[in-house]
């Protein structure tokens, strides 16, 4: 089939995109496109790739359906397009509903960019909310990887873009849970109490911001922040190392242009922060159990205390089966584990987070082993962390790769962080999708093998220099004995 005929499946005519089109413009339009798409590109992602990708999409499609996120906020774009469709529908043009039913979104950027668009779609509560395909164009790329779109930055030539569009047309819908996070602390008598924000926040609702006085979560005498995430929330030493790395990169960006150098720097920071040798170099007040009282809710209305082993220095609340490097810290519990501990495989649309603990970076190496997993702590649809005075003056947290330093109470008040389920959006997935749906009969609901062990230290010596993810990795070229 000729290229222009293929592209007709995706091209949206001007009268759909531009408000105020005349009846004569509308009536001269032919068939409704089979797979109309709106394309959002973070032109600053992936080095120069973002700009090249933006240009190719604009060359192939209607330039008015391709948006540079540096210039166009997605919430404004979607409001305009949907308002125009509603107006056309009121004027009697029935194809407007067909466009809404068939519309798909493409977002190219890192996980922060993808999360921004997912958050907008979730919060706008659109009629026929469009499903979203994610182009990997960042560093983590966990969202694209989890839904089968790969991890490597894409080619930007015409043939590659057309191949991607073909995948989008053939992709299937899969829902993904959205998680709301609330942080509340009493306003201090003097001095600031704001969390020190991530250095490069995405523009989404899924970055912390203080609620207004009219917000339902506002509480008099308190500072309340709210946001959300799609992949994970983590707290403890993994976030501490990530924060140190991001801080170094912001101070000296010229030193972070090579992947090996980045990994080596990450490894050195991991050692200097004590992440690789936590049990020897860190006092017990860095353990999660010492920092916070943690409660979770597996069933509605039933809060339980979370039993966290005293050696755990990092806790991850995971939504997708892709953490940091595409590995799944939860694994798939076998039948005995499911029965004894009321556990399930990790589904992305079951309203449950998987809560996993790690002792140190060496512990993370277990993810390399077949059926390897972290310390499974619980599954929950709500989890609450309560920090009291005395354990430490701060801790470190991360949302979908964005770290920050969080001050803890200096008086007798508490800092509370609560995570809860907050709706779903539709993703587009390929046949390589790693995520599993609780509604898909082909998804594995159990693992028959009985070697899914809780003995997480059985990692061969030759793996000791290969972490499962950036958080745990020491590159092969780096001599562990020279790290300090």
Automatic annotation (TrEMBL):
Q: Does the keyword Kinase apply?
A: yes
* Gene Ontology cellular component terms for the protein in this record: membrane
* Record SMART domains: DAGKa, DAGKc
* GO BP terms in the entry: defense response; glycerolipid metabolic process; intracellular signal transduction; phospholipase C-activating G protein-coupled receptor signaling pathway
Q: What is its EC number?
A: 2.7.1.107
Select a single GO molecular function from the record's annotations and give it: ATP binding
What Pfam family is a match, any one? DAGK_cat
Which superkingdom is the protein from?
A: Eukaryota
Claim: Metal-binding is one of the keywords in the record: no
Query: What UniProt keywords apply to this chain's record, in alphabetical order?
Result: ATP-binding, Kinase, Nucleotide-binding, Plant defense, Stress response, Transferase
Recorded catalytic reaction(s): these are: a 1,2-diacyl-sn-glycerol + ATP = a 1,2-diacyl-sn-glycero-3-phosphate + ADP + H(+)
Task: Please state every residue range assigned to the domain named DAGKc.
Answer: 32-185
Could you say which enzyme class this protein belongs to? transferase
Locate the compositionally biased regions of type Acidic residues: 448-459
The ranges of region (Disordered) come to: 434-459
Transmembrane intervals: none
**Gene3D superfamilies (alphabetical):** 2.60.200.40, Probable inorganic polyphosphate/atp-NAD kinase, domain 1 (3.40.50.10330)
- Similarity remark: Belongs to the eukaryotic diacylglycerol kinase family.
Q: What does this protein do?
A: Phosphorylates the second messenger diacylglycerol (DAG) to generate phosphatidic acid (PA), another important signaling molecule. PA is required for plant development and responses to abiotic stress and pathogen attack. May be involved in the accumulation of PA during cold stress.
Subunit architecture: Monomer.
State what protein this is by name. Diacylglycerol kinase
Q: What is the originating organism of this protein?
A: Glycine max
């Amino acid at each position: 089939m000729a290229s222009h005929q293929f592209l007709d499946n995706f091209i949206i005519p001007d009268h759909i995109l531009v408000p105020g089109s005349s009846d004569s413009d509308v009536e001269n339009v032919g068939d409704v496109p089979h797979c109309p798409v709106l394309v959002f590109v973070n032109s600053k992602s992936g080095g120069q790739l973002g700009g090249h990708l933006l240009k190719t999409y604009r060359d192939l499609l209607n330039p008015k359906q391709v948006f540079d996120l540096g210039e166009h906020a997605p919430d404004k774009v979607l409001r305009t397009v949907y308002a125009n469709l509603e107006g056309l529908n009121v004027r009697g043009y029935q194809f407007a509903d067909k466009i809404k039913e068939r519309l798909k979104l493409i977002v190219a950027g890192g996980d922060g960019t993808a999360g921004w668009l997912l958050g907008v779609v979730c919060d706008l509560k659109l009629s026929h909310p469009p499903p979203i395909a994610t182009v990997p164009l960042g560093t983590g790329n966990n969202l694209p990887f989890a839904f089968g779109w790969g991890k490597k930055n894409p080619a930007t030539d015409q043939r590659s873009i057309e191949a991607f569009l073909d995948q989008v047309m053939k992709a299937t819908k899969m829902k993904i849970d959205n998680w709301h996070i609330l942080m509340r602390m009493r306003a201090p008598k003097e001095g600031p109490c704001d969390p020190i924000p991530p250095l490069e926040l995405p523009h989404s609702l899924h970055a912390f911001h203080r609620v207004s006085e009219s917000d339902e979560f506002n509480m008099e005498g308190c500072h309340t922040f709210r946001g959300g995430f799609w992949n994970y929330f983590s707290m403890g030493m993994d976030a501490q190392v990530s924060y140190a790395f991001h801080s170094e990169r912001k101070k000296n960006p010229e030193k972070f242009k090579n992947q090996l150098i980045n990994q080596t720097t990450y490894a050195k920071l991991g050692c200097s922060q004590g992440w690789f040798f936590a049990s020897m170099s860190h006092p017990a007040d860095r353990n999660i159990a010492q920092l916070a009282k943690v409660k979770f809710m597996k069933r509605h209305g039933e809060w339980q205390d979370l039993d966290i082993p005293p050696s755990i220095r990092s806790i991850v609340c995971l939504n997708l089966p892709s953490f940091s490097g595409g590995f799944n810290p939860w694994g798939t519990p076998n039948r005995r584990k499911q029965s004894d501990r009321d556990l399930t495989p990790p589904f992305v649309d079951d309203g449950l987070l998987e809560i996993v603990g790690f002792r140190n970076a060496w512990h993370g190496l277990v993810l390399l082993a077949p059926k390897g997993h972290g310390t499974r702590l619980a599954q929950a649809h709500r989890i609450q962390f309560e920090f009291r005075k005395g354990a430490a003056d701060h801790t470190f947290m991360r949302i979908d790769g964005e770290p920050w330093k969080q001050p803890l109470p200096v008086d007798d008040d508490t800092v509370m962080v609560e995570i809860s389920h907050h709706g779903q959006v539709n993703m587009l997935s390929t046949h390589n999708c790693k995520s599993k749906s609780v509604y898909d009969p082909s998804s594995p609901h159990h693992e028959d093998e009985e070697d899914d062990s809780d003995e997480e230290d059985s990692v061969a010596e030759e793996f000791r220099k290969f972490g499962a993810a950036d958080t745990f990795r020491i590159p092969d070229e780096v001599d562990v004995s020279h790290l300090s």
